[in-house]
């Protein structure tokens, strides 16, 4: 299903920090649980960006912190007041601003921990969805070739997995995540 150790060996040294974008949703928790079973466990830095848009976000953040204390990896958290920021950038959508702030946070954490990459939990369904979204927008061929395993400072080890496989694994193993 997922050989995370072999994937990481291509990109990351054994003593290098592994930054993982962790929303506590099924995809990122699937990736985190696999990292926790790997020889890279001691290198994990899970990044949670609290958008403060739902009451549950504080519960999700606390869940990740409790998991960190139990499993022994690092957690970095950040939050943003999007109401104030939206006033500064009225032409941008919430989704665009949220993505920009998350990626700035991941980049800052990479710099702090001297890491080259952030691991993202994008999977095959995301890749297909993005392809069709770009096709409908009229992207050129280069815009249609999206979501590569490695791009910029991002690694995507789940691109070969379907969302259904991820959910099946989590349910079968009774692993906690949030929706």
The neighbouring-strand order within the major sheet is 3-2-1-4-6-5
In helices, the fraction of residues equals 40-55%
Order of helices and strands: HEHEHEHHEHHEEH
Arithmetic mean pLDDT: 90
Question: Would you kindly provide a brief summary of this structure?
Answer:
This protein has 179 residues and is α/β, with parallel strands linked by helices. It is built from 8 helices and 6 strands; from the N terminus they run H-E-H-E-H-E-H-H-E-H-H-E-E-H. Helices cover 48% and strands 13% of the residues.
Task: Give the topology, please.
Elements: H1 4-9, E1 18-21, H2 26-36, E2 44-50, H3 56-71, E3 74-79, H4 82-88, H5 94-112, E4 118-119, H6 124-136, H7 141-144, E5 150-151, E6 154-155, H8 163-172
Parallel strand pairs: 1-2, 1-4, 2-3, 4-6
Antiparallel strand pairs: 5-6
What report would you give on this structure?
By secondary structure, this protein is of the alpha/beta class. Helix content is 48%, strand content 13%. It is built from eight helices and six strands; from the N terminus they run αβαβαβααβααββα. A six-stranded mixed beta sheet has the order 3-2-1-4-6-5. Helix 2 links the parallel strand 1 and strand 2. It is globular, with a radius of gyration of 17 Å. The mean pLDDT is 90.
